[in-house]
Amino acid sequence: MRDASQLLWHSIMNTYQIGSHDREPVRYVIVHNRFLGKEGDVFLVDKARLPGVIDISLSQEVESPAYSYSVTCEDKDGLLSPDYFRGKTPGLEAFRGHLVSPWKGQLQANSKIEIHFGYGDQIVRVMTGLIDEVAVNAEAQTITLSGRSMYKRMIDNTVRPYEDSKHLLPDASMTLPDALERAFDYAGLIFKGIPIIDEQSGEEFLIGEPMGLRGETYDTVIKPLVNSVFHYFYELPDGTVEQRELPRFSQKVEAVFTVDDEMHLTALEYKYDDTEIYGTVIVESNRMADAYSSSFLTDKILNGERREVVIEYPWANTSFKRKLAALAYITRMLYKVRTVTITIPANPLLELYDPIRIQEKISTVSSNYHIRSIDYNFNSGGFTQTLGCSINAGFEKTEVPPPPVTDFPDVESSTKKVTLGIWDNGGVDLDIITIRLNGKLVQSNLVLDSTAELISLTLKKGVNVIEFIGVSAGASADLTASMFLEDENKKLLTPTEVILNMPRGDKVNDLGYYQGTKPVRKWVVDYV
Question: Fewer Cβ neighbours under 10 Å: the N or C end of the chain?
């Protein structure tokens, strides 16, 4: 759920969309100047608010990161039309002053826009996107813009192969995060990825085979990759795409918003569906196959009917990876089994996958759901939102994972913040490491020096894992370093310095950089 002020929350919680007490719904469509910095630019600003907006519809669903939208606004005398020119204005109308329009040529395919929603003076941006189509209705003097969010570039743009290769991703030993990063970079989008680690080997997932031929779209290439590792893409309001772990919900999950049937619900519809639902998923890779079943789907939904599906993922080359791929597939099926669609006064803070609580009008039972689709409608009838939701049921209890393996002595901290000190304890020869905390990047490509580099870490309650990934062993010998940890009170948590060692081996290039799978060392820290 997006952050917001208390004033906006107050407006959202009220069903009366009136012009007092910050309850009047507002919308802003911001258009970016496509001619900025070019000769003849008459727009003169980097972006401006689109005038005369009549209505807006905006849709988002989990099956695709791309939002779709439609904006209709007044186009009096054709001032917003892409091909507006002075001669289009009849002579008798010239005295109105409509001889020049700064909007000439602005509203065209691939122009960038932003959509903001809110109440009163409180607004939030919900989407940044590009125009697909411009439709001018000369009779009604309106113009309609249709398009999608920035992920459109991944769906429409075709692959540009890597230099001297016929593939976008030519190296079968390339890690999934690196593959995703390249695809988004080539498509022209900002991407924030997260590590994908094989818990059995401690190594990152590899793509398994060259991928991405000329003519394929970026989305076609990378979508199966992320779907198979229990992750998904989510586009932020500014157009940045994040990689997130697929949540597994239950009725115990705390709702971020409660839908009151008396205050909020204006429509509610249930749907039960067993099409394309399978009780067993078989995952194949390199002629190896593993089968995984859901007793909930087989017994509760399919009534014991035998249904199996076979999926092939070349990168799922271990039992753990195949299990993760099957779990992701089964989870997505669970999302479709029982759904409910509701219409409420719009809450622009809600996001896909948010858990919400709905008081059902028919059964009068209050249950947890999570959001699968969001449709905004802003018109003369008000500002409403239709949510497609899935019941939080059938997500079976999984085994508690074993404690993570540590390569160094266990450490306990009584403070949330600790400081890591790390330095090259041998000859300084450009040893380089990357550091992650609980899977999130802390320091990338840190060059070790003889003086300790001090790195601040914020721990979560319980077990924390600091990962050290070897990037380069430098000019000679192994990658070696000394380390210490101290808490907020400057108290050393390690009685002596801790030694980090990663053998140089024979998988380094002339500059000492590790090739293929990089060495990883883990340090477990308990925040008690």
Answer: C
